[in-house]
Amino acid sequence: MNKFQELINSDKPVLVDFFAEWCGPCKMMAPILKDVKNKLGDAVTIVKVDVDKNPDAARQFNIQGVPTLMVFQNGEVKWRQSGVVQARQLEHVLSSV
C-alpha cells in the first residue's frame, strides 16, 4: 500500500480505476483508459486496482461498486465517479485538475 500512497501523492494527476475481474462494465473501461493514456501520454498516470485482491484499498476509499474511477493529485481526491466514463469526459477531468 505504501507504493500506492507514493503514487497518489504525485503532482501529476493519477487516475485510479477500481475494478473487479468479474465485472462487465469494468471490462468496457479498459479500451477507454488505453485511449485516454494514448491521448494524454506522460501527463497522467493510470493505475488499475483490483478490489478483490486489494480489499484494504477498496475499504480505505469506500468503494461500493465497480468500476469506480478516482483522480488524485498531491494525495487529494480531485474527482470521483462510479460506472463507465467516456474517454472525452476523462480527458476533460484530467486536463482540468
From TrEMBL:
Signal peptide: none annotated. InterPro entries: Thioredoxin (IPR005746), Thioredoxin-like_sf (IPR036249), Thioredoxin_CS (IPR017937), Thioredoxin_domain (IPR013766). Gene3D superfamilies: Glutaredoxin. It comes from the Bacteria. Keywords: Disulfide bond, Electron transport, Redox-active center, Transport. It holds the Pfam family Thioredoxin. Residues 1-97 form the Thioredoxin domain. Belongs to the thioredoxin family. This is Thioredoxin. It comes from Flavihumibacter fluminis.
